[in-house]
Every structure is written in C-alpha cells, then in structure tokens.
Amino acid sequence: MKESSRARAAGAERRALDRHRILATVDSIPRGRVATYGGVAREAGMPRRARLVGRVLSELPAGSGLPWHRVVDWQGRIARRGDPSSEREQRRRLAREGVRLDARGRVDLSRHGWPRSW
DNA sequence: GCAATGACGCTCT
DNA sequence: CAGAGCGCCATTG
C-alpha cells in the first residue's frame, strides 16, 4: 500500500509547522532590535537551521506584514541575496526604526541584538 | 543517489 | 579585521 504518500503528507505538514514557528518568532522581534538567522532558528526550537530561516524569508510574499528586515547574519550584516534592491529596502526599514549600519555595513548586535545575550 | 546551491555559523590565517 | 575554508540543513536537478 501507499505508505509513501502518507509519509509525504506528514513531511509537508511538518515543514508547514516549522515554517509557521519561524514566522511567529520573526514576528516577535521587537521594533528597533535585530535577530540573527541562527538566533531565530534557536528561538523557534530548531537550532542549527539558520539556512531554513533564510529560505523561509526568501520565499516570504510581499506585504506579509512581518518584520523580516529585523533578521541579519551573525555578524550583524544584511545577508547577500539575488535581488540587491531588497537589501537596500532592509537597510531603509532598519534606519527608519533607529537601527543604523556602521561603516562596514554592520549592526551593533551588542546594542540592538535580540534576544538579549547578557 | 549524489552533486550543486543558498536571505547561514564559526574558526583559522 | 577581512577572507578563505569547512560545517550544517533542505531543496533541486
């Protein structure tokens, strides 16, 4: 019998749940703060899945209302992606809430980082 | 099934 | 302190 179809469906459901938890975590990042991809993954209960967070955000539809711009890489830099205009948009949104990038294009995580490490 | 790829993380030079 | 290198995870061809 087709156990593969059931397994496939279960897998899809699990992925949808993971995606939901990631988005919920991103939505909980306070205004004026930024989280790392790995940090979001960890907060969502799935450590070492930073790349999954990046994938989910890359597939995020426009106008989702989620603060996707508050997610940067572990060094506080805006992650490189296919569309540079998206990177500029992120920088713009962060600036609007008081988060500036230094000369090297990095956010001061010790000041704006979330969640609090100390 | 293996290799390539990507909004990543971390260490070593 | 910037780069290169390697690890990690999931998807795609």
Write the layout of secondary structure elements.
Elements: H1 3-27, E1 35-36, H2 37-43, H3 50-58, E2 71-72, H4 84-96, H5 109-112
Parallel strand pairs: 1-2
Helix pairs in contact: 2-3
The protein binds a DNA duplex (13 and 13 nucleotides) through helix 2, helix 3, strand 2 and helix 4.
Structure, explained:
Helix content is 49%, strand content 3%. A two-stranded parallel ribbon has the order 1-2. It has 118 residues and is mostly helical. The chain starts with a helix and ends in a 6-residue tail after the last helix. The protein binds a DNA duplex (13 and 13 nucleotides) through residues 15, 36-38, 41, 48-58, 60, 68, 71-75, 78-82, 86-87, 90, 104.
Low-confidence stretches: none
User: How large is the radius of gyration?
Assistant: 16 Å
How far is the N terminus from the C terminus? 54 Å
User: Helical stretch count?
Assistant: 5
Give the overall shape, derived from the CA principal axes: elongated
Question: Which class best fits the helix and strand makeup?
Answer: mainly alpha
